[in-house]
Amino acid sequence: MRPLSTALKTMAVLDVLAGSPRSMRLPEVAASMGLSRPTAYQRLLTLMEAGWLEQDDAGRYRLSMHVCRLAAAALEQADLGSRVQPILEELVHEVKETASLAVLDRGLPCIVSRVESDSILRAEQKIGTTMSLEGSASGRILTAFADDMTMRRLREGGEPLASEEVLAAARIDGYALSSGYTHTGIRAIAAPVFDVHGKCTATVSLVMPETRFSLDAVRAPLLKAAKKITKMQGVR
Questions:
Q1: Is the pTM of this model over 0.85?
Q2: Which of 18, 116, 122, 129 has the smallest number of CB atoms closer than 10 Å to its CB?
Q3: 226: domain range?
Q4: In this structure, are residues 16 and 29 in contact, taking their beta carbons and an 8 Å threshold?
Q5: What is the CATH number of the domain that holds 29?
Q6: What is the pLDDT of residues 217-233, one digit of tens each?
Q7: 214 lies in a domain?
């Protein structure tokens, strides 16, 4: 049995974009692959529909965060730790609660890295789990710190968003809280991670039973972990 040549040709676009330090215009993609513009556009459109690519405000094409989700899954399956894993492990060691890293994938927060606490009583959320924009702490952070383009897409996506009052508080505090979103009696707190352009690309969160929640105990370690991961992205 032979592989589908059309699928291979379409997937090759991902390698072209992955090899570029910035998003690319249609003519650039076509030229890089030796394709006509209509053919290149068809392949780009196919990958956008599948969630692999997205367009910025200028119409340039770039990889979507869906790629990060699959990359994280690949690391898990290969028993390899990501660069953030040691930071999450340090956070869990300090506060004794489960920590996660989440990114925006197809309009919803998605867990891409996670370190479980040793506690018997804990919330079960695996890598690849998606969460609510409105109800989860990570969703509130990704919404509160979203740039204009991302916010427009979130609104167009139709998913309920947290109130402006909740989002404003998250911007002021630098973190967001949620209670009972996944299960009754569960609390979560999340903080933003930024890239070199100041865009919120991810969240670091802690989740725990409400009976163990203490804002004073978890806030500073969480913010410190988020700052460390932000620095890993080249932010000084």
A1: no
A2: 18
A3: 81-232
A4: yes
A5: 1.10.10.10
A6: 999 999 999 999 888 87
A7: yes
